Amino acid sequence: MPTDFSYLNEPDPFAPDALRAPLAPQTPSVIFPSAHAGPASLESLAPEVTDMQADASDAVVTAMAEYDAAQRAQALAVGGPTERTLTPGVVPQPPATADGRNAEELPFVFIWIDKASDKVLFTENEHAAAPQRMNINVLYDLLNERDVRLVVPDKATVRRLQQASATATRRAGESELGLRTRSVERQLEVLSRITYSTFLIVLTRALERKYWLPEGFPIGNIDSWASAFEVPLLADSGPKTMSTLLELASRGSEYKQATNAMFYGERQALNAAKYGGLRPANTAFLAAERVETGAEAWDRLDLGLLDRNLLDGSVCEVTVDDVDPPAFAFNASLSQPFRLKVQKNLLLFSDDPAERQLVVTLETVRTSEDGLSGYLMAASPTPRSKLAAVMLANAYKAMQEDQPLYATEQPYFPVSKRSATAPEGRWASNEPMEFIPRSGGIPIEVSLAAM
Fold first, then answer.
1. Which domain of life is it from (predicted)?
2. N or C: which end of the chain has fewer CB within 10 A?
3. C-alpha dist (Å) from residue 307 to 65, 214, 351, 404, 405
């Protein structure tokens, strides 16, 4: 805890008047550097190839927009939100492990902006009569000293927290408090960039994943969701409204392999971002990448999103044409748009959640007047393993019943067992590195020539 509390006499960085000045342009992130060339990478392609890719991309975007609009229109006709996914919109906490982790359910802490006073408030109990005002030390403790999950109503609240922590950092300078405020800044940066954050749950984002909001309601507005579900508005009920919407967003069947990877990956990213330096930044970046890999798989393998995923090619419909039992393989017609890769492992599944997902390899893809066809083979450790036999039986059953199967890129869920504790070393210090100037007056031309 800091020993200098003189900052308490200064204006509250969480107060609205401290945030009225426009923010300076955001500097490139240390934790999330820009690693992609972007559209410039298409310049090396022939113009006709670029045009074809652009046309195909535009067609996919249009098709998905039309699909989304149709689903929201249907929700309007029904008179309320309809289910979008079978899995929840909130990442569930993993079950307790043998070593005692997750033995207790992590409590939720609700944070929101009071409409009347425009102040940031928080409470650990939705039934509390008197919520407390947020400050930077409380936020640091919630992120680092307490095992809790933060819940905010919308992205605007996240931006308010980020602006307040940046203001607190400028005021604290290089003091002990400054170390804490910079930790909070880095951690909020990580959490705000994760699609489905586990430890900073954005209710509008979680509800948007779980439900189709009726047409005409702004998706990013928490009051739209409150009105659609006929619960009191945030200004009238505060944390009680948030708690009710959180419970609605948490409904659904689990896909533990993806959500467990997301939970532990985000925890590692959050712990690493507490510290300054290159090594923690690299750890946080890689862990956040793993979280996003889990989020993509969570969406691609949700049967509620199956029709939507077929539109962009992230999932391919596989119609079995004939089975090759000796090779534990089969020929199939493949839907388009097609984004899967040859000689890569795919996850094969059906629209029956009770059937097992199996790994296959897409050996070849052929084009004809009828479209695309492929040759898929069991990717089991041994060709005659039990899983290969199950795959063959599923393919034969699908062919006989004229039912399609579906394939998507096999997800990879690497989760490091090492947690990011206080790192040590020259690349992991919160203190600025001291550089020793070159002695001897060596000319710059000579120095460069020797490199």
1. Bacteria
2. C
3. 13, 19, 11, 13, 13
pLDDT tens digit string along 258-312?
Answer: 999 999 999 999 999 999 999 999 999 999 999 999 999 999 999 999 999 999 9
Q: Give dist(CA 30, CA 127) in Å, integer.
A: 40
Find all residues with CB under 8 Å of 34, minimum gap 6, and list them.
28
CA-only gyration radius of the chain, Å: 26
| Rounded CA separation 358/287 (Å) | 26
Contact by Cβ (8 Å): 363, 346:
no
Three-point CA angle 138, 102, 265, nearest 5°? 75
| Cα 250-95-350 angle, rounded to 5 deg | 65
- Answer yes or no: are the C-beta atoms of 176 and 4 closer than 8 Å: yes
Strand duo 405-409 + 315-324: pairing? antiparallel
Q: State how far the Cα of 205 lies from the Cα of 153, in Å rounded to an integer.
A: 9
- In 3-state terms the chain splits into helix, strand, coil percentages (rounded to 5) of 45, 15, 40
d(CA 141, CA 144): 5
Per-residue tokens: 275: 């510290």
